[in-house]
Automatic annotation (TrEMBL):
Keywords: Cytoplasm, NADP, Oxidoreductase, Queuosine biosynthesis. This is NADPH-dependent 7-cyano-7-deazaguanine reductase. Catalyzes the NADPH-dependent reduction of 7-cyano-7-deazaguanine (preQ0) to 7-aminomethyl-7-deazaguanine (preQ1). It is found in: Cytoplasm. It is an enzyme of class 1 (oxidoreductase). One of its GO terms (cellular component) is cytoplasm. PANTHER family: NADPH-DEPENDENT 7-CYANO-7-DEAZAGUANINE REDUCTASE (PTHR34354). Substrate binds at V73, E74, S75, H92, E93. It comes from the Bacteria. Pfam families: QueF. It catalyses: 7-aminomethyl-7-carbaguanine + 2 NADP(+) = 7-cyano-7-carbaguanine + 2 NADPH + 3 H(+).
Amino acid sequence: MNDIAEGATQLGHATALPPSPDEAVLDRVPNPHPGTNYVARFTVPEFTSLCPVTGQPDFAHLVIDYVPGDWLVESKSLKLYLGSFRNHGAFHEDCTVAIGLRLRDLLAPRWLRIGGYWYPRGGIPIDVFWQSGAPLEGVWLPDQGVPPYRGRG
């Protein structure tokens, strides 16, 4: 395995969707620019989970921004991890914050934030935001680009 793929256990292999977030494996790979502050962004416009009370599907648009330290999250493993929420029952707040905490613990980034823009259930959209600390000075941090929910008004 080359240096780029070091630590990537799922990259280049057929991998089934994990049955749950707890069973999902998140891989990390070395950051080729560990001394440089830059923002990496993952946009997940079709995130799904289940309401833990009704079992009905919940849908969100997630935006994950982070300033890497020594590690990057390997994108295939992130995709599979996020897909594992499809059959997982949890409230919007729990899903959003749990994803942020898991990435923080895996990567030890210089900074991380996640915006969970959830589609309405029961007529109320719930947006959930979490970040690991204050944004780093001098790092360009673009707006997440997701407009607030506005019905047909």
